[in-house]
Structure formats: structure tokens, C-alpha cells
Amino acid sequence: MPAIFFEGEELDCRPGESVLDALNRHGKEIPSGCRAGVCQACVLLTDEQQVAARHQQGLSAAQRDLNYFLSCQCQPTSAIHVRRPDSGANRVRGKLVNREWLSDQVVRLQLDADMDYRPGQYITLWKDSSTARSYSLASHQTQDKWLELHVKHIPGGAISPWLCNDLKCGDELTLQGPMGSCVYSHTQDRPLLLAAIGTGLAPVLGVLKDALVNGHHGPIYLLVGAARHSGFYYQGALLRLVEEFPQVELQFLVQTWEGKACPGLIEADIYQYCRERFSDLSGYGVYLCGAPTFVQKMRKQAFMAGAAMSDIATDAFLAFGETS
Amino acid sequence: MSLFDELGGADAIDTAVDIFYRKVLADDRISHFFDTVDMEGQHTKQKAFLTMAFGGPNNYTGKDLREAHRHMNLTEEHFNAVAEDLLATLEELNVPQVKIDEVMSIVGGTKSDILNL
Ligand SMILES: Cc1cc2nc3c(=O)[nH]c(=O)nc-3n(C[C@H](O)[C@H](O)[C@H](O)COP(=O)(O)OP(=O)(O)OC[C@H]3O[C@@H](n4cnc5c(N)ncnc54)[C@H](O)[C@@H]3O)c2cc1C
Ligand code: FES
Q1: pLDDT score of B49 more than 90
Q2: Per-residue model confidence (pLDDT) at position A324
Q3: Which residue out of A19, A40, A324 has the highest number of ligand 2 atoms within 8 Å of its CB and is therefore the one to mutate?
Q4: Topology, domain A3-83
Q5: In which order are the strands placed within the sheet that holds A68-70?
Q6: Which CATH code for domain B3-114?
Q7: B11 touches chain A (CB under 8 A)
Q8: pTM for the complete prediction?
Q9: Cα angle for residues A309, A310, A313 (degrees, 5° grid)
Q10: How high is the ipTM of this complex?
């Protein structure tokens, strides 16, 4: 059984157990969020450079050099020395400046924080020293004064009800990041397909803003899907935004029609719609954001329709404990 | 010059991997081995495989290949399917016949390791 030396203390680790799980089992309070290698809440430091190198996906170059690693991903096979990063790994304090319900399920948060980011990346928000979740950035670093997040209210959830109801304007909170690579990265003339369901609209909106700020003139197809009408938000604002930009085509797709018409809204299955409308995606830049099942299914479909793997950017909203 | 260099090295190989990966995903005989939610991870593995097959720098050893495929219960049919898809990929890329022969012989050499014979 491999031993974990946690800040000098020797603890056992069961076969197949992650460093995070082992430390938690021994009563060590190591924070975690996604447990899937995405949110970086669980970063620790180790002296074993080779171990660290295998569990550093998504970390910055500086963090990699310092031997930070994701403890939820690391299942040690031999003894390993680990410790907590004292600096609190790329965290900053921020303040809630504005909160607004965009629908009866989704809240827009605006945060004042000093952070360099690209629209479409995500950050991890900390409720207390051990609870954290990730949210994607809908704002643009040069166009918008505040960081903007769209949070779906999940009743009974550890973090979203707190963000949606309890946190008050002026309250401070800890932000970690930015992370992720779902950012505008294509040349201005390429056709782009941006597809979101639910609050996947947040990162897609970020990418759209960045494309437009960068003078993107190739066609941009923006698809926003929902199971029912109540799943949409921001429709008016989006319609106004794209009016100014003739290269953007906006389509709302609802799975189950409930008789409420809205400009740009059709009843369609988003997968079916894409198969027919975008049967050849070679040369496209593709951005897919929202629930993991949606992202995975669409990624395969887009790839099979000819999009290059390196041209498909994704932001999958893994729920706590879900592994990709 | 190896086919790897001739095609343009590590970057150009992405295109070949994309074509090859689409073919195996569409191939009912073997698609279930490749159809995973971790498409990026799968893509990376195939890139390593094609880099090796194209005579580029590779870190594979016979032992690794054996280990990686040990519990998959692969048969001759599976191996042939992959080889056929690779051949079709090379033809689609207009690779000259002599080079195709080279690649297929490298791949043929891995058969006993992959099938754990
Ligand atoms: C990279 C990344 C980016 C993300 N970006 C966003 C974003 O921009 N906006 C956003 O709203 N969320 C986003 N998420 C999801 C977010 O991090 C949380 O998972 C979500 O807010 C639920 O947290 P919670 O603490 O409220 O609920 P939890 O306490 O984690 O979960 C409570 C229960 O609800 C279930 N549950 C969790 N999520 C959902 C869901 N979406 N629908 C139905 N049931 C659910 C859980 O399985 C659990 O049973 C993102 C996630 C990742 C990994
Ligand atoms: S990255 Fe380890 S808990 Fe999220």
C-alpha cells in the first residue's frame, strides 16, 4: 500500500484511491469541487516531479514548474510527499456588485475582481474553505467592467442557492482562476458554430463578444437550445446584440413547443438540426458549452461532420463528483 | 526521410489522425473500442500510434503495446479492421505506394504485441 506523507505525517492510501480521497478519509480537510480534474480546487504540492507531471492538466506553466498537481486525479503507486500550497494557488478576493434574475432559474452575477482572463474561460468560486464550484465567464475583459457569470439555481445545491439568494451585494468572496481553453482562437474569416444549452450560454456569449471585438467577419452561427421555453433567458438582449452584426445568425431551438413564439425560435432537436443544417463542418471553428452529455454528443457529431478535433473547443459543466 | 517528416511532422499529423479516427468511429467492427467520452484523450493515443506507424519519434515499446491491449480481448478481425482503416486513410492522403508499404509493415510488426500472442 503506497504511503502518503502529508506535511510530514505518514498516512496510508488504498489501492486505486486518489490522494484527495485518502486525505479526506484521514480527516484532512482538503478542498474539492468537481473531483474530475476540472475546477482545480484540490491542488496540492509535491516533491515528486514525475508524479506531479501526470496530474497537471489545465494548470498554468508557473504552477506546473512548482509541482502543483490535482489531488483528485492522482492515484499514487508509490510513496508520495504532499503539502498544501500556502499561497492559495491563483486565488483573488472579489466582491459582488450586482445580481439580477434573468429568468426564474438563472441569475446573473457581476463581480468586481482583479483578474486577467479571456471570455469563455471559467473560474472557481469558494463559499468557504472547503466548498467550491466552477462558473464560466460571459464578460469581456476590455469591454465589461465586471466579471459576469450566469448561475442556474439548483434547489438543494451546495453553492448555487447561496449565489442566487444569500450572497449580498457588497459581500466578498474568493475566486480562483481563470482556467479553461474555450476561448476565441480562430482567424476572422472562418465560419464559427457556437452552440449552448442552459447556462452554457455564458461562455458562448463570452466567445461571441471576443470574436466580434476582434473583428470576426466570417459567418457566426449561434445556437441556443433548451428542453422547454422556461430554459431560455437573455433572449431579448441576444436578439439586440446580433442585430448590429449581420454576420451573426441566431437560432433558438426548443425541444418541446409550448406555444410561446419568439423571434428566432423554432421547435427542433438540436442534434437533428445540426446534422441537417451543418452536415459539413470542415473548416469551422466549433464551440460547445453546457451539460456534459450535450457537449460530448455534439463534439462527436461535429467531428464526424468534418470539424478538425483541434478546432472544437468545449466547456462541459461537470456536476460535483461526475467524471468525464 | 520518414513519412512522418514528409507529411510535415507533428502538426500535419493531426489531419491524418482526424481522418483515421473518423474511420474507426464509423467502423462497426471496432468503433466500440474508440467511442469514449474522452475524445481528446483518445485522439492523443491515436496520434502516438500514427506517429509510430509513420516512422516518427515514438515512445512505444513492445511491452507498452502488450500492456495497453492486454484486457481488451482483441482478435485478428479487430487488428485487420484497424489496418484497413489506416490503409484507407493513407490512400485518402495520396501517400505513394512505397510509403504505404513501409507504414503497413511497421504496423504488421506490432501485431503479436497488440493481440498478446
Ligand atoms: C468548467 C465548469 C464550468 C461551469 N460553468 C457553469 C456556469 O457558467 N453556470 C452554471 O450555472 N453552472 C456551471 N457549472 C456547474 C457548477 O459548477 C455547479 O456544478 C452547479 O452550479 C451546481 O452546484 P451546486 O453546489 O449548486 O449543486 P451541488 O451541491 O453540486 O449538486 C446538488 C445536486 O444537484 C445535481 N445537479 C448539479 N448540477 C445540476 C444541473 N445543472 N441540473 C440538474 N441537477 C444538477 C447534483 O448532481 C446534485 O445531486 C460549471 C461546471 C464546470 C465544471
Ligand atoms: S480538479 Fe480536483 S476536485 Fe476539481
Answers
A1: no
A2: 46
A3: A40
A4: Ubiquitin-like (UB roll) (3.10.20)
A5: A9-12, A3-6, A80-83, A43-46, A68-70
A6: 1.10.490.10
A7: no
A8: 0.88
A9: 90
A10: 0.91
